[in-house]
Write a structure and sequence with these properties.
single chain, about 240 residues, alpha/beta, six-stranded mixed sheet, four-stranded antiparallel sheet, 6 helices, binds ribose-5-phosphate, EC 5.3.1.6, ribose-5-phosphate isomerase activity, Ribose5P_isomerase_type_A
Length: about 240
Amino acid sequence: MEDQAQAGKRAAAKRAVDERIRDNQVVGIGSGTTIVSAVERLVERVRDEKLSVVCIPTSFQARQLILENKLPLGTLEQYPQLDVAIDGADEVDAHLNLIKGGGGCLTQEKIIASCAKEFYVIADDRKDTAKLGTYWKKGVPIEVVPMAYRPVQLKIQQQLGGKTELRMAHRKAGPIVTDNGNFIIDWMFDGTPDWVEADRKLHCIPGVLETGLFLNMAKAAYFGTSDGNVSVRIPEISPS
Ligand SMILES: O=C[C@H](O)[C@H](O)[C@H](O)COP(=O)(O)O
C-alpha cells in the first residue's frame, strides 16, 4: 500500500503540474522526493498532450530525473528567465514562507525559483503549518563555504541564538558536501524569529552562501492529503 505521505505528495504534484504548466514553457524542476511525482506527471502530459517544455534542474538529482525521463534539459545560461518553477518544501507557514534544504539542496533551488515568473510549492499536508518549526524540527539549513563553517556556527549562535550543527554524511566519513562543494549547517532556532530579519542577518555573515528560508517567493502552495484531496493556498497578507 502506498505510504500516506507519498499519496499526498503525488496528489499535490499532479494538480500543480496540471494547473500550472502550459505548452512552450521553460520549467524549473525542484529537488527531493515530491518533485519525482511532478516529473512523472509532466512526462505523462508531454506524451499524451504533446506538450513542449524545457526543464531547468535545481540539483544533480533533478538533472538526473530530467535525463532519465527523456525530458528536454536546459540551463540558466540558455534560459535565464523561466516561466514557472515547481519544488517541494520541508515546511510551509501561513504566509507561504518555506524551510527548504532538508535534502541538502537549497542554493540552486533558490536561484531557479528567483528566476521564474511563478514559483509553486508542492507538499503533503503534514508540512502545512501556522509557524515554521512546528513540524520540521531539524532547523534551517544554511549552505556555507567549508573553511568558514566553524566561525559561521559561532556567529549564528551569538547573533541569532539557538544551536547549530554541521550536517554529517551517512555512508561517507565527515560532513555532507553539497552540489556546489559546500557544507550545510542546520540552525535550530529558538521560538519564532522574525524571518526576514533572521535571513538578512544570516546573509551578512561572511561564509554563508545561502539559506533554506524561502520568504515571499511562492505564489501558491499545493497540499495533498493521503486520500488524494488537494488544497491550494495563496499567501496570507502579513499583519503590518
Ligand atoms: O534539499 C531538498 C529540497 O529543498 C527539497 O525540496 C525539500 O527538502 C523537500 O523534500 P521532499 O520533497 O523530499 O520532502
